[in-house]
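Sharing a chain and its predicted structure for anyone who wants a worked example. Both blocks are below, sequence first, tokens second.
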Amino acid sequence: MRFTGTESYVATQDLTTAVNAAIVLERPLLVKGEPGTGKTVLAEEIARGLGAPLLTWNVKSTTKAQQGLYEYDAVSRLRDSQLGDPRVSEISNYIRRGKLWDAFTAPERPVLLIDEIDKADIEFPNDLLTELDRMEFHVYETGQTVRAARRPIVIITSNNEKELPDAFLRRCFFHYIKFPDAETLQRIVEVHYPGIKHRLMEEALRVFLEVREAPGLKKKPSTSELLDWLKLLVSEDIGPEELRERDPRRLIPPLHGALLKNEQDVSLFEKLAFMMRREGRGG
């Protein structure tokens, strides 16, 4: 079982190496990188490439580790007992299975995505250590032990909002997805827009990379935002000549709302345009 990428996902050599190392070691693959670099999509493509089912656990600030195992709905059981519902005699009727339970008991070896683990409380990763190590947990209400028939392929993503505990990091194989270079970006664009005109793609990539490198930028645009921007350029029939325009009044790229996501960054480019116009008058 080896991952080599898919037709719709450009995976670099170091990324495929990391994925396959985690599979061989049977350890979770912890993936970090800038937002929009394809961390979440990676799990989807691993599942597609390996022909495995995908289970996704979207972590929020309020998520607790226990929810990944199971939840016991005592309130519903109490209400049903007051109403005389016969289901109350079977406590398992009030056990809600979590994503880890589903992954452990899946008929085929699944890919389990634990997405954005750093959003949760700092204790969240530590609370999962035993379950991810032993691949089993105990259901106290019913007395049963849930064991994994086979270890799921676990992909964990993080945007680095919080530091993860050392004990948790030791149990993972780590990979940082670097922002793609120009050549890789071109391959990504060609995968998503196979019919795009080469000159338009070249000019768009040049402008996109210039925007990312602008000093003082608060939020650099991501790969996913580049793809959104290209879709708009094609839809609005904006050609490479317009992107090549050197007029300071046109310094902000057309349809820049797909790339610049806050007023500070828009203001930054407006100031740059003003400075260029003033320098032009002075010359």
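Comments welcome. DSSP finds 13 helices and nine strands in the chain.
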